[in-house]
Amino acid sequence: MVTIGMNYFVIAGKEKVFEDACASVIKAMQEIDGHEQSDLYKRVGSDGEPVYLIVSRWQSEDAFQGFIASDQFKKVTNWGKENILSARPRHTTYRED
Q1: Going by fewer Cβ within 10 Å, which terminus of the chain is more open, N or C?
Q2: What is the DSSP letter of 72?
Q3: 44: exposed, middle or buried (C-beta count within 10 Å: 0-12, 13-18, 19+)?
Q4: Count of H-run helices and E-run strands, the chain
Q5: Within 10 A of 2 (CB to CB), how many other CB atoms are there?
Q6: What single-letter DSSP state applies at residue 46?
Q7: Rg (alpha carbons) of the chain, rounded to whole number
Q8: What number of CA atoms fall less than 13 Å from residue 62's CA on the CB side?
Q9: % of residues, the chain, pLDDT over 70
Q10: Is-contact 58 2, C-beta < 8 A?
Q11: 43 — pLDDT class (breaks 50, 70, 90)
């Protein structure tokens, strides 16, 4: 199993749009082979730009890589880059031994 931390930096005022989009994507991810669970978290207590973290568990890193190579993921990320995100997302992989 592998856990992916996906950090997103959102344009101020776009939080609700981002959260709604994430909810839709996470729901769709439940149907993807190899996906186990994803949860969305928001940084609190900061005056800076809104920052979110999606923690996503996958059966393997290959399953996650297949997802991010999909047309579905590319459509969502292109939409986010143009309308919602203030910076490029950063992903971190956590492997279980």
Answers
A1: C
A2: H
A3: exposed
A4: 3, 4
A5: 19
A6: -
A7: 13
A8: 0
A9: 96
A10: yes
A11: very high
